[in-house]
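Minutes, project check-in
Item: structure for the 294-residue chain
Input as provided by the requester:
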Amino acid sequence: MARDPQPDDLLTLLAVARLGRYTAAAEVLGVNHSTVSRRLSALEDAMGGRTLVRTSGGWEITELGRRAMAAAERIEASLRDLGEDTGGDPVQGMVRIAAPEAFTSGFLVPAMTRLQHAHPGLAVELLAATQRVRQNRSGVDLEIVVGRPQVNRAAAVPVCDYALRLYATPAYLAHRGAPQTVDDLARHPLIYYVESSLQVDDLDRAVQGLPPSPPSIRSTSVFAHVEATAAGAGIGVLPDFLADPDGRLTVVLPDAYAHPLSYWAVVRDEGPRNPAVAATLAAIHDQVQATQAA
């Protein structure tokens, strides 16, 4: 090797390996894209080979890069220990989480609010996304998805179960008549996702057993589903943890229809060794447990 790898270069590799993108790592490190590129080039010159390779889904770590990353994690741990010895907080920096709107509102926001209050040096970015799991998870530390995902070079952890159920307002049911069977739904507008925009098979299957709907309000936003249902536009297919606490809504055909689903957390292999990511996962788990116990 021409020279020893530098700590800043190693820590830059660690950020790119965790996030999969130069730009995301640059934001977390507080530098620009060219600085990330320059540091990684210097590290590879020092190591005598490639530490990262570009794939269709982002940057992936090489075997040589894993050796360098192990050293970077030891540096990170030493800095964390030093910070703890001087009263510093190891949970700091930035965590990016991609999650569906409903999960973000129901679980993530309260969980991350408490976590950020406990660790003021932690910044949290929440990206609303209801989609299939991204195999590269580029640019995010943690992804929450609907349904058990099949992933590579990542860990998938179950978070919680829930169900889609049918809801309407009492006024709507009084005016249009409450359906007595699933077949009766053919006379009622169903409020749900825009079919062509659905990317999650488990959500698509939720309405496949229901009769065709008359013209209705459809949206890519679950909160539009809730508000349209509350406004009396029809019968909404809604997550129970959002709709049950809403005093404007009542469940329809509770014994005839329920579509069970689950949320899973997906994190790159390198992620859980990041104290901020580990604390985030723990905070989400605690929030889900508290919500379900309430």
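Outcome recorded: The domain at 7-85 is CATH 1.10.10.10 (Arc Repressor Mutant, subunit A).
No further action items on this chain.
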